[in-house]
Write a structure and sequence with these properties.
By secondary structure, this protein is an alpha/beta fold. The protein has three helices and four strands, in the order ββαβαβα. The longest helix has 14 residues. It starts with 5 loop residues before the first strand and ends with a helix.
């Protein structure tokens, strides 16, 4: 059997501090965009961004949301800039209205 660890990071659940470095990190992290952004910031600072193989963003059409969309855009920009295209990014949406525009921006 595969020994894959999964953990959730949302609200106050899954908060990691610098004292948690010895704690084993999960193979799969399910996060809110805010927690994912925080994790990416930490990995970039520690030079460990290469430990990520894939990012899946559900409801990617929320990038157009006037309240939270900027967070997704910043998150994606940070990934694209810091990972040298080594991270596979999967965006899921059933309602992305401007897919051609998004595709051009994403490249």
């Amino acid at each position: 059997s595969m020994n894959i660890t999964i953990d959730g990071f949302y609200g106050s659940h899954g908060n990691k501090t610098d004292d948690d470095d010895d704690e084993e990190q999960p193979d799969i992290a399910i996060c809110t965009i805010e927690k994912a952004n925080s994790m990416i910031n930490r990995l970039v600072e520690e030079g460990k961004i290469g430990t990520i193989g894939m990012i899946v963003i559900d409801e990617i059409q929320m990038i157009a949301d006037p309240d939270r969309g900027y967070q997704i855009e910043l998150f994606l920009s940070k990934l694209l800039f810091s990972s040298s295209n080594l991270i596979q990014i999967v965006g899921m949406s059933a309602t992305l209205p401007n897919i051609e525009s998004f595709q051009k921006w994403f490249k």
